[in-house]
Write a structure and sequence with these properties.
2 domains, 417 residues, single chain, 17 strands, alpha/beta, TIM Barrel
């Protein structure tokens, strides 16, 4: 058995809001540093990126692609569907997984009948979710669709501004093909457990990275223990939710996500669900509509109390990326030389960021850095973090230290189950 830290929602340099250096080489380099040992390819419908994938990755019969150094990738893209249903505009993003290059070519051929694929690594089409799933399944039963970041306010299955109230309402007769949901940065599995309608689905987590830096790559990932690595074994492990194979997910603290609370960035207004509801989600400063956050949307659809844990729940662990902790403790910018020096010193000693965040003893961390940073890493590991919630596209801000109010999140501690 081998443990795989999988980040299967990534993007390439051909997606909007990414840099020209977001290539396979940098994705592999920083995945290894992070501790991620299997990546999605991202953006396989883009013709230039697809050409690079075919030139740089070797395909085998298992459905796994390998770089020259042997690093494994799985074929993956994200597609934005914008359409009207029930007299309402809908905007839903879906992850698409494919078993081989030939299948990808057929997917792209299908999409070209509905628009272009060369302008963005995450293309947009006016196809409904049911039609999209049905058409892809007609191409191959081994194509799998996972609704992406399902609670994000603007582009998701349950999004407050463009989504639905149930998986069935969105995918209709094609719901039978949906077996997993990506929770997204602004929600945790525990928040999703409050909806009994989601019990049948596997909850997966991936980063949706637009940069390869270690505070982006693997910030969320899914951890599987597999006898052999293959496309089929990965899908089966996620589907079956066997805790001996599907070990846990690594999560952002949901409060750190950009859409956790309701608010209005322009006016600097940010509110928890109960306060936002009291003012009907109207900005008290400019009287415009607030961006309804994930926490409020979950509260709206939940049929269970906070803290409920289903019988088949998969474990999860919330952690703040190491670079953010270093920057916060020492009051540096996240991409500054001082942060990189400390980060690289710890990596040289402990091997990967995940090993530092999840396993390294406090006294050894203190030797290689400082007692303050070592303590913050342990606090992070134990869920003792205070976070100023994110809202309306603004990331939340974590804090560490005895002087702040600590919020324990027992549901995120792997030892609690």
């Amino acid at each position: 058995m081998s443990i795989f830290y999988i980040d299967a929602h990534v993007h390439s340099k051909y997606s909007r809001a990414t840099g020209k250096d977001l290539d396979l080489e940098n994705l592999e380099k920083y995945a290894r540093i992070k501790g991620v040992n299997l990546l999605g390819t991202g953006d396989f419908t883009h013709p230039k990126w697809f050409s690079e994938l075919k030139n740089k990755l070797k395909e085998d019969k298992s459905g796994i692609l390998r770089s020259k150094s042997g690093f494994p990738f799985i074929l993956q893209t994200e597609v934005s569907l914008i359409y009207t249903q029930g007299n309402q505009g809908r905007r839903v993003h879906n992850l698409v997984l494919a078993p081989d290059f030939d299948t990808v070519s057929q997917i792209t051929e299908y999409l070209l009948k509905h628009g272009r694929v060369d302008y963005d690594g995450r293309p947009i089409f006016g196809i409904s979710c049911p039609d999209f799933v049905e058409s892809l399944k007609q191409i191959s039963k081994e194509i799998h669709i996972i609704p992406a970041h399902i609670w994000t306010s603007w582009f998701s299955l349950f999004g407050a501004n463009s989504g639905f109230n149930s998986v069935q309402e969105c995918f209709q007769d094609q719901t039978k093909h949906i077996f997993a949901l990506e929770t997204g940065l602004s929600s945790s599995p525990a928040m999703n457990w409050r909806l009994s309608q989601l019990d049948k689905y596997s909850l997966v987590s991936f980063s949706d990275l637009h940069a390869f830096w270690p505070w982006r790559i693997g910030r969320e990932c899914t951890v599987l223990d597999l006898k052999e690595i293959s496309y089929k074994n990965i899908i089966d492990a996620i589907k079956k939710k066997n805790p001996k194979e599907f070990l846990f997910t690594i999560e952002f603290y949901p409060e750190e996500g950009k859409y956790h609370w309701t608010g209005h960035r322009t006016c600097g207004v940010v509110l928890p669900p109960e306060e936002a509801k009291q003012i009907n989600d109207i900005c008290p400063k400019c009287k415009s509509k607030l961006t309804v956050g994930v926490a409020e949307r979950v509260e709206e659809l939940a049929d269970r109390p906070e803290g409920f844990v289903p019988e088949n729940a998969i474990l999860f662990k919330c952690i703040v990326p190491l670079s953010e902790i270093i920057a916060k403790i020492h009051s540096y910018g996240i991409a500054t030389k001082n942060v990189w020096q400390t980060y690289n010193k710890l990596i040289a000693k402990f091997g990967t960021e995940f090993n530092i965040l999840l396993n390294a003893p406090e006294h050894e961390l203190a030797k290689e850095s400082s007692p303050e940073l070592a303590k913050a890493i342990i606090m992070n590991r134990e869920g003792n973090v205070s976070i100023k919630p994110g809202y309306d596209g603004v990331y939340g801000e974590p804090s560490f230290g005895e002087e702040i109010k600590i919020t324990k999140r027992k549901q995120s501690n792997l030892t609690e189950f």
